[in-house]
Amino acid sequence: MASPLITLRENTIWENKHGTVSITPRSLCDVWNTWVGPGVSNGPIWRPGLAGLRALVAQAEAQNQRIRGLGGAWSLSPAAATHGIMVNTKPLNYIELGFRDASLDTAFSGNPDALCFAQCGASVLELYQYLEVRGYTLPTSGASNGQTIAGAVSTGTHGSAHSIGSMQDYILGLHMVIDGGRHCWIERASKPVVSPSFCQAIGAELLRDDALFNAAVVSFGSFGLMHAVLFEAEPLFLLEKSLVRMDYARVQAALGTLDVEALDLSGGRELPFHFEVVVNPYRVSRGQRGAYVRYMYKRPYRPTQASAGGSTWVQGDDVMTMLGTVTGWTPHLVPVLLEPILSAQLAPVQGVAGTPGFQFGAADLRGYVMSSEIGVALADAPNAIDAVIDVANRFHWSGFPAIRYVKGSDATLAFTNFSPTACTIELPSAGSPRTLEAFHRVWDELRARGIRFTMHWGQMMRENREWIEYGHGARVEEWLAARQSLLGATGQRAFGSDWLTACGLG
Ligand SMILES: Cc1cc2nc3c(=O)[nH]c(=O)nc-3n(C[C@H](O)[C@H](O)[C@H](O)COP(=O)(O)OP(=O)(O)OC[C@H]3O[C@@H](n4cnc5c(N)ncnc54)[C@H](O)[C@@H]3O)c2cc1C
């Protein structure tokens, strides 16, 4: 009888990409879309991978072990870590575009040809490449492309698509492996997509429930192993990117309103599809041109070389990665170097067009980098940014605020769940104890000012129920209730972790 191929490494030290988390899991398993042994069936390509995930969950429960899905290991928080079984899902990267009518619920009103079934380990780069050659693209992504789709969605990865939201906001269905190795298809009751016959064909239990879907979609590995997601891809378009530098005072008002009229952007008063501001907190006076405004307009597609996979890391494309380069040789000098680094890396650009897969391309991960990111309501953005600048000027550290905007998320614990628009403030910094201290000072300052804020689950955060509740309020209980409704006690334990316990969520 054929069994799914799973390769094991035992007692191996695992580290995340930026070296902020290190752990020795009991086993680190790679799961493959491959059968081994006699009697191989001819089913779908993804079937062995699903069988592998199911077998691992059953094994974890039998051994009273914890189990967690691992994507690209890009999270700076320990969200993906466990001392039990860590499941490397990257080999599970099957992607399929287009659904037959028989697989769809009659209420589905979208474009069946654009429906994309992506296995959990498909990376953002793989998705961009796959979709682009078929005339489609992702509706939005983060600034770069190394995450897996399941990993990205699970922590609420976002870019600055204020009209769309974060990556979880375009997900329509979740195929989850839960306790006992059972598998289910979760979608919203208010937005059914697949037909019961589709679920029967893949052997999954169909669960239609808005509260469950909204909780599960951003659940950082705690609702089971995500085998696949379903989303509607967007017809391919171009993004025309510009970057201009100006005084902080000039951009300040727009940070809380998104009224860009006074900024003299190339499109005038039109709010660009992507609007992002990096601030040098040590150069906020008049004449110091401490604000770097990067913006992108959506344009109709025309053939271009600037497509997914064609971009390597280029200057200014990912503010988080650049400090890692410097920290290798001069960590203590970074605050002094910030101005020349920022001005070199965020050099002016005028109207460079490329596909989204090109604009949000590769990031070269180097050095010991730390990052934290908070979400606030749009109206609170100026006060929150002022808090960060204030802390930096009282306690110099190598970080700086990178500010982006997304439509508020419906996901219960998304850190962007501010309606109608969330402002995200990322603090990419060189890794050091001083940076950690600075993050704590920023969180304390925000709270002292009475600003409600949330923390990105995939970035460094204060792991503490009281602080999480400060940001999310009653949503924490809603999320816990949804988790209990899906998983029995055994499953809740299996899909828990020390980190989840520290957060007061498991
Ligand atoms: C260079 C760099 C740039 C970044 N840029 C951005 C950005 O622009 N915007 C932004 O919002 N964030 C950004 N981040 C953060 C990053 O997007 C998130 O941390 C994201 O979750 C990482 O995805 P991953 O595939 O690496 O998942 P991992 O870090 O491996 O895992 C993340 C979470 O997902 C869970 N998970 C993964 N796969 C599964 C699965 N199959 N089933 C169940 N759970 C699973 C893990 O258990 C974990 O809880 C960046 C990080 C780096 C290092």
Automatic annotation (TrEMBL):
Signal peptide: none
Entry protein name: FAD-binding protein
Species of the source: Pendulispora brunnea
Positions of transmembrane segments: none
SUPFAM superfamilies in the cross-refs: FAD-binding/transporter-associated domain-like (SSF56176)
FAD-binding PCMH-type domain residues: 37-236
Gene3D superfamilies in the record: 3.30.465.10
Name of one Pfam family that matches: FAD_binding_4
